[in-house]
Amino acid sequence: MAAHQLSHLRNIGNTVALRLGEVGIKSEAELRRVGAAQAYQLMAAQCPGKRLPVCYYLYSLEGALQDRPWDALSEQEKAALRLAAGLPR
């Protein structure tokens, strides 16, 4: 149910949609309100001691919000996202 509301977005498959649902993000509107960086942080907090792949989560979320492939984000955009998510450059 919730996964279906998010999995229609570009870059968001069932696994990412389910993880978003686990942290309370169940719609596109909620993802937009929270933003990619904070959504990534919330999902990462669910997996302490484990680093979520940045390209599959952080970049994919931003790409979904912009309706762009995650790998089309510029290096500047990726660096800004990592900084906003509290990740090393």
TrEMBL record:
Residues 4-83 form the TfoX C-terminal domain. It comes from the Bacteria. InterPro entries: TfoX-like (IPR047525), TfoX_C (IPR007077). PANTHER family: PROTEIN SXY. This is Competence protein TfoX.
